[in-house]
Please model this.
Amino acid sequence: MTWQELQNQALQLPISVRWRLVQSLLASIEQETLLSRSYSSSSTPMTGLDPWTQSLLGVVELTPEDSKESYIDYIEAKYK
Model:
């Protein structure tokens, strides 16, 4: 089922059921977010960062190869 089909079906539900669905989805998202935050905070302590910035930690996973290339690009651009 595509997300559009799911959305169309959800929109046909009574409003009270849709509210329960929204609450359930938000609780699920909050739980997953808390789990990912606790994982990233235990692996990389960055207590000096703003909470919003801390929430972005772990969003993008870079391989060591990507990190190295990124750093090389940064250094090349800086010292041109």
The CA atoms of residues 3 and 9 lie 10 Å apart. The helical segments are 3-11, 15-43, 51-56, 64-78.
